[in-house]
From TrEMBL:
Residues 8-68, 76-132 form the CBS domain. The keyword Transferase does not apply. Keywords: CBS domain. It comes from Hansschlegelia beijingensis. It holds the Pfam family CBS. SMART domains: CBS. PROSITE patterns: CBS (PS51371). PANTHER family: CBS DOMAIN-CONTAINING PROTEIN, CBS DOMAIN-CONTAINING PROTEIN CBSX3, MITOCHONDRIAL. This is CBS domain-containing protein. Coiled coil: none annotated. Signal peptide: none annotated.
Length: 143
């Protein structure tokens, strides 16, 4: 299955923040939306970075509560691994596993087109396993 199929089911909405957004505001957004990452978008060149729960924890460990009053750009991951509509779910799973991250922004050219999380990948895989098991049960029942 391709990424485009997952986004067509899940939706393409992505929560973005500006590089100047305070980490405290980002943390509030993560909690309110029940998400694990936001894309940092400077409005000009598009994707500037990504700020994840893990980035926030590292910032707090290094700077204490003062990190909450600093901008997202201070702690965001700047080298963002992205995906595209034509990537397979297995390709994204490999990138996530090898890179040890859980969120991949999906690009359509230079435009941010969605976000795939490890939860989306696991859901897809579970649906696939259930479909295979169901087909196997049907096959056995008719044999």
């Amino acid at each position: 299955m391709r990424v485009k199929a997952i986004l067509s089911t899940k939706g393409s909405g992505v929560v973005t923040v500006s590089p100047q957004a305070l980490v405290s505001d980002v943390v509030r957004t993560l909690a309110e939306k029940s998400i694990g990452a936001v894309v940092v978008d400077d409005g000009a060149d598009g994707l500037s970075g990504i700020l994840t729960e893990r980035d926030v924890v590292r910032a707090l460990a290094a700077h204490g509560c003062d990190a909450l009053d600093r901008p997202a750009s201070d702690f965001m991951t700047r080298e963002v691994v992205t995906g595209h509509f034509d990537n397979t779910v297995d390709e994204l799973m490999d990138r996530m596993t090898n890179g040890k991250f859980r969120h991949v922004p999906i690009m359509d050219g230079n435009r941010l087109a969605g976000m795939i999380s490890i939860g989306d990948v696991v859901k897809h895989r579970m649906d696939q396993i259930e479909a295979e098991a169901s087909a196997m049960r049907d096959y056995i029942a008719t044999a």
